[in-house]
Design a protein that fits this description.
Structural class: mainly beta
Shape: globular
InterPro entries: Galactose-bd-like_sf, IFT25
CATH topology: Jelly Rolls
CATH superfamily: Galactose-binding domain-like
Largest sheet: 8 strands, antiparallel
Number of strands: 8
Radius of gyration: 20 Å
Order of helices and strands: HEEEEEEEE
């Protein structure tokens, strides 16, 4: 009989399973819709403003205006616990990501530093697992580039609200 091979213990309905999965689903925090904002950037270009980093569109971007390092600071509306950080860039060579849990963007600690491959002016996609990194602010530093100018098309920060 089929009943004889059913595992012992309480059964779970599909509805309960869906609710449990939704409760653990990650949130995209690097988004104006979520209340995040880039509060500082070392260069400005009216045609390619820093706000483009958070608009979710691959075809828009923030363009640096030459010289390195270039820096921008992302503010989350509340402390978050990050699992994954993704960047979509062009001509970035060395990238440093730092975080702070402080209420003001000071006293940053390194999350990761990476050297990206030269893609000959094509888009560079980078994914870093950061395993429950708590942050209220992220400081992203482009330490060097493969060209005089580089672009940041997208920043994605997935995780959960910090408890």
């Amino acid at each position: 009989m089929v009943d004889d091979i059913a595992p012992p213990g309480p059964s779970i309905t599909l509805g309960a399973l869906a609710m449990a999965m939704a409760a653990t689903a990650m949130t995209e925090f690097a988004s104006a819709k979520e209340g995040s904002a880039v509060i500082m950037a070392t260069s400005a270009d009216d045609n390619h403003p820093v706000e483009h980093i958070l608009d979710g569109l691959e075809e828009t971007f923030w363009a640096t205006t030459g010289l390195y390092p270039q820096v921008f600071i992302l503010a989350f509306p509340r402390a978050v616990s990050l699992s994954t950080i993704r960047t979509l860039t062009r001509n970035v060579r060395k990238l440093l990501v730092e975080r702070t849990e402080e209420s003001m963007p000071m006293k940053f600690e390194k999350v990761f530093e990476v050297e990206l491959s030269d893609r000959s002016n094509r888009l560079q996609a980078e994914v870093q697992q950061v395993n429950n990194t708590k942050a209220h602010f992220l400081r992203i530093t482009i330490k060097s580039g493969w060209d005089d100018f580089c672009t940041v098309h997208r920043l994605s920060c997935e995780g959960w609200p910090s408890s």
